[in-house]
Design the sequence.
């Protein structure tokens, strides 16, 4: 389990950007050591797909459909 700041550091993202992704994808937020490995993996894959030019709108469609 990880804290929000540990997860942001692991993903090489600012906490502001990571929080924005949580809101955009309507992901739950947790206090303290609330973030599981699976949660981190999902965000890592999502940020990797953004790096390859896949828009957040496309990812959101995949996530919500």
Sequence:
């Amino acid at each position: 389990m990880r804290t929000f700041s540990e997860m942001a550091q692991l993903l090489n993202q600012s906490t502001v950007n990571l929080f924005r992704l949580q809101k955009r994808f309507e992901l739950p937020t947790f206090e303290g050591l609330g973030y599981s490995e699976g949660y981190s993996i999902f965000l890592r894959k999502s940020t990797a797909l953004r790096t390859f030019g896949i828009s957040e709108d496309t990812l959101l469609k995949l996530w919500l459909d």
Observations:
- The chain has one domain: 4-64.
- The radius of gyration is 11 Å.
